[in-house]
What we know:
This protein has 471 residues and is α/β, with parallel strands linked by helices. Helix content is 42%, strand content 19%. It contains 20 helices and 17 strands. It has helices at 2-6, 11-15, 18-27, 31-50, 62-80, 106-117, 139-146, 157-169, 190-197, 212-216, 245-253, 283-288, 314-322, 325-328, 333-347, 350-353, 357-363, 366-380, 422-431, 455-469; strands at residues 87-89, 124-125, 130-131, 150-154, 173-177, 183-185, 188-189, 200-204, 223-229, 259-265, 293-297, 308-312, 388-399, 402-416, 436-438, 440-442, 445-449. Helix 12 (283-288) links the parallel strand 10 (259-265) and strand 11.
Amino acid sequence: MKDILRQMPPVHEIQRDERFEQLIMEHGVDAGIVTQTIQKVLGDIRQKILNGEWEGPVPGNTSFTQNLFKRASQLLEKQQDYTLKRVINGTGTILHTNLGRARLSDRAVQHVVQTAQHYSNLEYNLERGERGSRHTHAEELLKKITGAEAAMVVNNNAAAVFLILKALAEKKEVIVSRGQLVEIGGSFRISSIMEESGAELVEVGTTNKTHKSDYEQNINENTAMILKVHTSNFKILGFTETVETEELAEIAQRHEGVVFYEDLGSGALYDFQKHGIGDEPVISKVLKKGADIVSFSGDKLLGGPQAGLIAGRKDLIEILKKHQLARVLRVDKMTLAAIEGTLADYARGESGIRNIPSIRDLLATPEYIKRRAEKFIEYLEGSWSPYRVRVLEGTSQVGGGTMPDVELPTFLIGLSHPKWNASALARKLRLEASPAVIVRIQQEEVHIDLRTVKEEEEKLVVEALKAFCSQ
């Protein structure tokens, strides 16, 4: 073993090899990083030799040196690889939380790129030639689309809820129905956020039934707010009763100083109900019904980046903008650009809204998806293929804790292979395809729902499946 280890080439000898310079050029790194990588590879090989685990070429011959440079190149590539990677979503779940939720529209992406590559007026008032506020960006578009007097953006909807409660109801009472004490996700509960904000929770009604009188009887001189939470991630069915927005607004208006705040969670700026999809309240309609202030997510039904959007009365929004937490919870220029780009699509009406990927996917018809699935199979079977492929009926989900009771009719591509079972094929698509393809598995068959696959991505999936055939 000592004789074998003595044959290990010294680092200074490897540095004189022309392949050392090739590594520098290929990977765009300096000599010091390549040297460290070579040392790491040599150290790993040395340890494997000592443990009796080395199965590569014996040190001292050309094959060993060639293997050494190959391993160094692979390690350099791995070290430079991103952990956040593009994937193809073949699951049919549109707002897939694990896969990044909403995809941005082309307009939003272009605005983000332009804002990131150049200086901007993030906090500069061009008209006055002096310091400005980042809160002004996206506000005009939000006001136009929602009909609100004022608006602002924070980093997510949980932050929006926290800021509103902290700034408007700290050390005061907030009345909320027991049936609306939801868990938003990741163990973030409305009751816990309220406790952290310093607001005092006053629970009224029961899990399934809350009456108008429950609110009225609990208002006193220490009441700051009536809170209505939209239960967007679950449904209570059967013997139920809730108090509508108009009634809660009317109660708040009869009591001076009491704010009516509605947390809408999923954030629908578009009326999906006219397409028979779900029953999500539209932000503009909620404000018209009398809500003083509302909050909602940016990366769910709105179809933008992760953000919390707040809209409502100007005097309340001004309090929020001036609160110390506003700086803690503020968003960066890229998020603001993405929000502006997304809202600009809404401002263009129906044609612009259809440019937003999540809305386009939600409204895609089963017939359209079936035609694409059939063409996908034609392309896959264009040459010899061992796959058994079929088109079958199925359902897509909205996802992201949104519209839990909505199932969208769709058509699926069913795939099976004589060599690999469904789990093995799904694993190959996930780990060996580039970009990775995420699929469903049902009844020992891989299912791909093209609802969430862009048309230009279909070729990439087919090419990956064909490449596996040569293995």
